[in-house]
Amino acid sequence: MTESTPLLSVQNLSIALPRGGDRPYAVQDVSYDIRSGEILCIVGESGSGKSMSANAIMGLLPDYLTPQQGRILFRGQDLLRQEEPALQAMRGKDMAMIFQEPLSALNPLMTVGEQISEVMRVHDAYPGARRMARTLEMLAFVGLPDPAALYHVYPFRLSGGQRQRVMIAMALALEPALLIADEPTTALDVTTQAQILALIARIQKEKGMGVMFVTHDFGVVAEIAHRVAVMEKGIVVEQGPADEVLNRPRHPYTQRLIAAVPHRRGDERAAAEHERPVLDVRNLKKTYVVGRGWLGGRREVHAVDDVSFSVRQGETLGIVGESGSGKSTIGKCLLKLVGIDGGQLVFNGQDIAAMPEARFRPLRHDIQMIFQDPYASLNPRHTVGRIISDGPAANGVPRARAEARARELLALVGLDPSAFDRYPNEFSGGQRQRVGIARALALEPKVLVADESVSALDVSVQAQVLQLLHDLQQRLKIALVFITHDLRVAAQICNAVLVMHRGKVVEYGTPAQIFDNPRHAYTRQLIAAVPGQHWDPSRAQAA
């Protein structure tokens, strides 16, 4: 194979869907190449076919999905014509895959070391003591501490970032020529994501591998890609060098995706300083007992430690931080879904923290939450109309009036009137989130808490929901508490930003103050970890 010959060449690949319908193909006439020493990012939204083509390369398609046409040439061999034993011999040794959710991909009954060693055992590589040595070497290579101790640890005891490093160690144990990474950083905090991206880029450079990196995040693309292929509804609509696709996109779909990437507003809105705070949080504390220490002593975690802030009518306060920072616990405290251990929650002049539940219940409709996972928070046995109207009906609104209001709210959040009689499973993720917003608004709240409400959405759907929240808030003058780990989203939507670290507020100010002149080292670390900072999506020009 010459230097100009692709390591992997996908040629006119089509994979039919079993029922056909409006979209008969999951992947249609897809072609792209990957060379040794190159990172190709496949970017697109859910349902675009990017993961489907990755699974086809590895021979991991389900039985009901069969490629109808095309070739997948790996080192000149057509993988679609290989029998399963031949593909098994290649997986792990010649080509390997890192999956999106390592906790699902790792065996919970095997230790970390056993799972890395198994890759070598299956391929009869590194026999005897060399296998253990190689396993420890790989754990150290991906930056995990104390490999000898970690060898005997089970996956559930590791953090998400550590589990992803274990997956990378497994994938690289036999030094494959091709590495496929399917959304490997989507569920990770920004600093952990930055570490994993840097690790993959370093390994790719050192080993000269070809890497196929599947993602929906253009910031990640800007950070690591040499070349980019954009997929929409199973079709590659655009591909080329990263600089061309990111800065001079040709296809309207690529242009729409890039336009939807969160970025700082040029016309940053000022907070309404003259307004009295709707919600004033003073010295809030919440402690969890997570276990027992030596000699029977309690082991405590200060999830929220002396936190204070206020939110005014029509203002958006962003609470940002990584997993474990305490930001979601604050949201639960605001709605009194968990008890607090100290401080005040002053809502419209009343300390609701000190109120017994019977007194607070009539005020519950004034503080509502949009949850992170709308599918888990919507009752699958109830229609959307009932889901939205049940709250007002339970608060004394006649059912007919509550249902009429539900129809109005469906129109307000941009859903078709037919949605009223449909069930949650009949909607996309973005549509379900709109239902969650309509449900929260049904009780006409004065404070709306959005807990990671756009983190699971594709970039264009995310942009639509953010715009919807902004428009509704301005129209209804709601105080919005927006909880997120994505600093780009916070910069776009918020008047003020509060940065949390290990239960404490480390910085509080306007987006301009936080992002242009961060004072705290942790804030600077978070901002530095945002992928693709050298790329400004707002300056991308259509080719």
UniProtKB/TrEMBL annotation:
CDD domains in UniProt: ABC_NikE_OppD_transporters
One Pfam short name: oligo_HPY
GO molecular function annotation: ATP binding
InterPro entries in the cross-refs: AAA+_ATPase (IPR003593), ABC_transp_ATP-bind (IPR050319), ABC_transporter-like_ATP-bd (IPR003439), ABC_transporter-like_CS (IPR017871), Oligopep_ABC_C (IPR013563), P-loop_NTPase (IPR027417)
ABC transporter domain span: 8-258, 279-527
Keywords: ATP-binding, Cell membrane, Membrane, Nucleotide-binding, Transport
Family note: Belongs to the ABC transporter superfamily.
Protein name according to UniProt: ABC transporter ATP-binding protein
